[in-house]
Amino acid sequence: MADHVKIFDTTLRDGEQSPGISLDEGEKLEIAEQLARLGVDVIEAGFPIASQGDFEAVQAIARAVEGPIICGLSRTAHKDIDRCWEAIEPAANRRIHTFIATSERHMQKKLRMTPDQVKAEAASAVGRAREYTDDVEFSPEDASRSDFDFMCDVLQIAADAGATTLNIPDTVGYGIPDEYAEQIRSIRARVSGDYVLSTHCHNDLGLAVANSLAGVTAGARQIECAVNGIGERAGNAALEELVMAIRTRGDFFEGLEVGVKTEELARASRIVSRLTGYPVQYNKAVVGRNAFAHEAGIHQHGVLSDRETYEIMDPAAVGQGESKIVLGKHSGRHAFADRLKHLGLVVHGDALNAAFVRFKELADRKVEITDADLEAIVVDEIGGSMVHHIVLASVDCRGGTVSTPTATVVLAVDGVTVESEATGDGMVDAVCKAVKDATGMEGALTDYTVNAVTGGVDALADVALRFESDGIVVAGKGLSTDVVLASARAFVDALNRLWRIRDSGEDPAGVDRPGSLRGV
Ligand code: KIV
Ligand code: ZN
Questions:
Q1: Ligand 1, residues 96, 141, 142, 212: which to mutate, most atoms within 8 A of Cβ?
Q2: Which domain CATH number covers 474?
Q3: From the first residue on, what is the mean pLDDT of each consecutive set of 10 residues in the chain (520 residues)?
Q4: Which end of the chain has a smaller Cβ tally under 10 Å, C or N?
Q5: Do residues 318 and 455 share a domain?
Q6: Burial (0-12, 13-18, 19+ Cβ within 10 Å), 254
Q7: Can you give the pTM of this predicted structure?
Q8: Ligand 1 centroid to residue 102 C-alpha, Å
């Protein structure tokens, strides 16, 4: 039988103590219901004496939420403990968690109590709580900065008075894994009684999860933690990281198990983030949106042939769906071709190569390439895989609202490089005139529209235009994040169509007249 490590969630108590977070009763209930779905062992629902609102929220959770033990926090004063009990009483399983500081600094500066007074408070509080329930937790606050012998004396007093869980808070995140583990081991050796040892680690040095896990390897069988690691200052140990560390490294944490339904982790994270207004950092372990996203070409190739080359957890196992191959400037041909296949776009040979070159060009300008971007590129390339008499090499624009808009274009016309410069009413007008001059093709633009294919300020612009020459009307399309370049491409596309029509010797009458457009 595996040894069960209890998950004690304090999102609604310590987590709610984060600066700027204030949850109302309905929001607390929503989080508590998700914690129950997640299957945590204990929900610390709040601090009932702190305010009427806190009291009512804890009571509402105790009434409505089934499954986990519902716990309330309480100082050592009897009126605190009585109020705590009143709030949690409706729950099927309830716990009172009482605490008092044991560090020199806290006793002198905050409590203004002598060590003997603190000992007496601990005994009296646990005794009072035991009158209500046989599930009582005791915490010596600021344990990691307390005199160790004195703290052990207080813990022994609490255990003798009937505390069934002894929680060791690293209140200010001061602990170091080896040291914290050693404290847990020594407490187990020195404090007698039938109790569960618990960790409660803050993240001031970024070590909350590491310290908690070290505590578990040293014998703790309860971990106090919060969803997304929220809590006072830098927060508490992150629930999702602890759970997945123990699950994923079952070889290391041999013989230990946690009862959490991991598929609910991502949803828990989203709910807590939405209701607290605390965003989840993109690269947050387990629940961050990039936790299973791959950008580098080498990684993408690896993941596409075997997910486990670069993933130690299955995204589906934490409710994150599937691995994400993010197409960006570091992506390679494998990821590109794979995404096209997923989109049902069949492209081979030269068209695939050309589309890949266009994709890389775009990726240099745009951080993330969306499916709509890809579709647009591919459709453009396939559509353009015919003979091109005119190839656009470069476009250079100057001027604007103050000086005259001027465009210089370099084209290859049937293999001969031609450069031309023109001015216009605006940049688009200037570039179209320059293209017309360079090719010597006569005619007039009759229609011009621009659409944003994708979202954002770096959206792909899709320019569609019509050009009439000698009674023939042709359409042209061009894509780019730069609307002037898209316009030049569209214009060159139209001219190529016109050239092909003339080459084919078809009588334009009937098929190419305005109103029956060719190539639209
Ligand atoms: O950090 C802390 O010491 C606490 C106690 C109340 C357990 O949150
Ligand atoms: Zn705390």
A1: 141
A2: 3.30.160.270
A3: 94 94 94 98 98 97 98 98 98 98 97 98 98 98 98 98 98 98 98 98 98 98 98 97 98 98 97 94 95 90 91 96 88 87 77 87 81 77 66 89 90 90 91 91 85 69 81 78 87 83 55 30
A4: N
A5: no
A6: exposed
A7: 0.75
A8: 12
